[in-house]
Specification:
By secondary structure, this protein is mainly α. The chain has a single domain, classed as Heme oxygenase-like (Heme Oxygenase, Chain A, Up-down Bundle), CATH 1.20.910.10. Helix content is 79%, strand content 0%. It is built from eleven helices and no strands. The chain has helices spanning 4-11, 13-20, 23-30, 35-62, 66-93, 98-103, 108-123, 126-148, 158-164, 167-185, 189-214. Helix 4 runs antiparallel to helix 8. The longest helix is centred in the first third of the chain and has 28 residues, at 35-62.
Length: 224
């Protein structure tokens, strides 16, 4: 019988192909993505990672395995420390002030994705939670490698590309894949179906996140 992650990866193959084909990722590969779109993406990504770090911390606390506790705790820290360093350098390079970033609210897509993750962390099973967490790791690894193999020379977005095609990031992805398979093997058929639903939902949100940045998505109704 195929491992859970093998089935989930195959189940989402068409959508993942669409992620690679998104205008955002095609133009990022070519180095032609507009500064405004990349700025929008990076600000929303910083907002997303705060919530994702909290989600990883909850996964660490809920894990029945010491090794998984350590893995998620480290990932939670890296989501804030390592990624914040990347965002800081990119913000400086692309002219995003700390005040501008702090004043920006999550887009509808960012809010939807992070609320889904945090709700799953609080109300779902541990197995559901790790399945919801995994696509962010795995899909970024796939996109990073896909773009790295095709990126234009002297690409202005090379720092971002290097981060997600790095060997250390690949090792983290493999660790979370293994954790997810162990969680799937230890639970029920019904819970494995909920895991698949969570994996699919997060994969959809991954597509939506890049698409939203490209569209410069905002809220349709202002608060003031």
């Amino acid at each position: 019988m195929a491992r859970f992650t093998e089935r989930a990866w195959q189940d989402t193959a068409t959508l993942r192909r669409r992620i690679l084909d998104l205008p955002f990722n095609q133009e990022l590969t070519a180095g032609t993505l507009s500064r405004e779109r990349f700025q929008t993406y990076m600000i929303q990504d910083a907002l997303y990672l705060e919530a994702y770090s909290r989600t990883l911390a909850i996964a660490s606390a809920r894990s029945p395995e010491p090794d998984a506790m350590v893995q998620f705790a480290r990932a939670s820290e890296e989501a804030l420390v390592v990624e914040r360093a990347l965002h800081g350098s990119v913000f400086e390079q692309f002219g995003v002030s700390p005040a501008e970033a702090a004043a920006t609210e999550p887009s509808p897509t960012c809010a939807g994705y992070t609320n889904f993750l945090l709700a799953t962390a609080q109300t779902g099973t541990y197995a559901e939670l790790v399945a919801a967490i995994l696509p962010c790791f795995w899909i970024y690894w796939e996109v990073g490698h896909h773009i790295s193999d095709r990126a234009a020379a002297e690409n202005p977005y090379q720092a971002w590309i290097d981060t997600y095609s790095d060997k250390a990031f690949e090792e983290s992805v493999e660790a979370v894949i293994a954790i997810t398979d162990r969680a799937a093997a230890a639970t029920t058929d019904g819970d494995r179906e909920r895991m698949m639903q969570a994996f699919r939902r997060s994969t959809r949100y991954e597509w939506m996140f890049w698409d939203a940045a490209y569209r410069l998505e905002g809220w349709p109704v202002p608060m003031d």
